[in-house]
Amino acid sequence: MKDQFLLEEHTSIRSVAAQKNPVWMEPQVGYRIKLSIDNLRTSDEAFQILKKLVARQKNTPKGMKQLADAIPEGYLDGQSQMIDTVNLQEVHNSFMASSTHLFSFVMNYRYRKEVTRGEKLIFFCQLASQYADELRFTDTYEISDEVECPLIYAK
Question: 104-139 b/e with 16+ CB inside 10 Å = b?
C-alpha cells in the first residue's frame, strides 16, 4: 500500500501524523555541568550551594536499617559437628590400582566408617558417572544379590 501511495490516498495519515507530538517519547537528556575546582574553592556562591546540598543530603531518609539481634552467648560454644563422609577420590584411586571390576571393588572396599549396601550402590553409580573418561565399560553384566550391573574396569 505504501509503494502505490494507497495509504495516503485512502486515509488521513498525513494529517494525523502532523497533529501528533512524539517528542514526549524521546529520552530526557541530562546535561551535567562540570564545575571547576578552583571556582568551587574561591566562589562564595558555590560554597553556599555546596552547603545546601550537604544539608539536603543529611535530611534525606536512607530507609530503615535492619539490624540483626545479637548472637546469644552460648550459641557458638561447643556446638561443633563432625561429618563423616567417604572420599570418592580416594576410593577411585584405590580402584585404579586394582584389577577387579568396579562393582566388586566398591562392595568389598574397606571404608573408614560403617557403610550400608544402599550407600555402596550409590558410590558405585557416582564413581561410574564422575570418572567415566577413565573407565572401560564392557557389554557383560553380572548379577550380585539381585543387582544387575555392568562390568566396569580401569583403563
Answer: bbbbebeeeeebeeeebeebbeebbeebeeebeeee
In a domain, 51, yes or no: no
- Give the number of domains in the chain: 1
CA–CA distance, 92 with 59 (Å, rounded to integer) = 64
pLDDT digits (tens, 9 = 90+) for 62-92: 666 677 888 887 777 766 777 778 889 999 9
128 with 109: CB under 8 angstroms?
no
Report yes or no on 126 lying in a domain. Answer: yes
* 3-state SS class at 32: coil
Partners of 143 in the β-ladder: 148
Q: Is the whole model's pTM more than 0.85, yes or no?
A: no
For residue 143, being part of any structural domain is answered with yes
Parallel/antiparallel/unpaired status of strands 147-154 and 135-144? antiparallel
Domain encompassing residue 100: 88-154
DSSP 3-state assignment of 82?
A: coil
